[in-house]
Amino acid sequence: MNVEQHDQLYEKYCNLLSSQSGIDDQAGFSFKHYEIPGNDVITLKESSSFISEGTTGLCSWQASKALCEFVTNNLEEFRGKNILELGSGVGLTGIFMAKYCEPSMIVLSDCHNSVINTLRQNVELNFPKGTRVDTDNPLISCLIDNIDSIVAVMDLDWSYINASNLNQLIEPDILVGADIVYDHALFQPLLTAVNYIFAITNNRCKFVLSCTERNQDTLNDFLEMLVSTKYCINEETVCPSKHFQWDSSSAKIRIFSVTRDWSFQ
């Protein structure tokens, strides 16, 4: 029997796990290793709990792994591009794209202090030979020249993205996000961020969104918000798990490409 996991129940579950996890419990972290194409490995510091320190961003989620698999099957769409990831968490998708796609620049972003610190550590861990670049932007905690790509970690609050000076750092060709559509309270800030990014790129950006469908109504509500603000949505084929493993039986993964007509003002 399929039972939808409604927002309030999911929120209570998150709060319960958060209260049990302990705020400064570094013993709750471990290092996970992901073999990726090209005989390379990603090593990530992750929380052993789904919810830790009041956030869901300290472990890798299934939609992130599915997005990585999608990227391996659509490499040319991402190679050499400027890429911005929203809600990067511990950085699996962004670090994989930086290693595998050879983007011109990729910015991994989030806005929770513990997540940003862990994200920065993971980027530094996976690009030890990269050159640290100084920056005056207080929202940039890490900027690394990795020869083939520039990799940055940015503290990016969706609600205040207009004040972030993001356009001075990057004008994204591709915007990506994995498992960031799960709470109605985040929909308007997320839409604010998406609108801003499409505006600074004159609607030439593409948004690739990977979602775990915990509640079909919740996901549909956000998709309807996009459509109502003149975005076009194309549902992509989710690739079978080959390089990245996830439990496809527990919840459905859906991936969307979101675009907007260039002439939209």
UniProtKB/TrEMBL annotation:
It comes from the Eukaryota. InterPro entries: Methyltransf_16, SAM-dependent_MTases_sf. One of its GO terms (biological process) is methylation. Keywords: Methyltransferase, Transferase. Pfam families: Methyltransf_16 (PF10294). The keyword Methyltransferase applies. GO terms for cellular component: protein-containing complex. One of its GO terms (molecular function) is methyltransferase activity. This is Protein-lysine N-methyltransferase EEF2KMT. The lineage of its organism: Eukaryota, Metazoa, Ecdysozoa, Arthropoda, Hexapoda.
